[in-house]
Amino acid sequence: MRASWPWIRPDDAVSELETLTDLLDAAWMHMARGVSDRKHGFHLPVVSTVRDGQPTGRVVVLRVAERASRTLLFHTDLRAQKTQELGDGVAFTFYDARRRLQLRATGSARLAEPELTDARWDASNNPARKCYLVTPAPGTPLAEWQSGHTGELDQGRVPTTDETHFGRQNFAVVVTQVHTLEVLRVERLGHRRARFTWTSDGWNGTWLQA
Question: Which domains does the chain have, with CATH numbers?
Fold first, then answer.
């Protein structure tokens, strides 16, 4: 008899997670939902890199999750330290408390080419673009707190489109191609945990003790 998972919504495409295929399908389905649904637990993953031999993480907004190309994408400030830490790859950690689903994804990361970056910038709105107008650069030590904006922008005004043009030079897109996925489903009768590794034959999955 297949186990039931009562906290999954009836409209979820995957309502039972019993097989390896179920878990892999759920991972990509919920990452895709995290892109479009701001209330989904996967909308704001933690992305970790390595800095001076030590792990460092931060929350980002998931912008693209494409199963066919194994791609995850987020936006960042080109001046941010993490853009210098992509060489060794990145790790994403997702957690959806409602579904008791944890996902860890690792892969190779790079800055997107100008054409894709331009397209993502053109698709962004002015409130989002305002983040890339701050000076000095993100991470710069300050003698006291400041917003990074001046004049009316410092008072919360949304910039005009013309005012946002300066921010384009600071805008970057990080593209990650996923090599491994580890899925953990918390369940009172026994957690389900599996690892998937990309090979020339596709995703190779194995169960792990939770």
Answer: 20-125+173-208 (2.30.110.10)
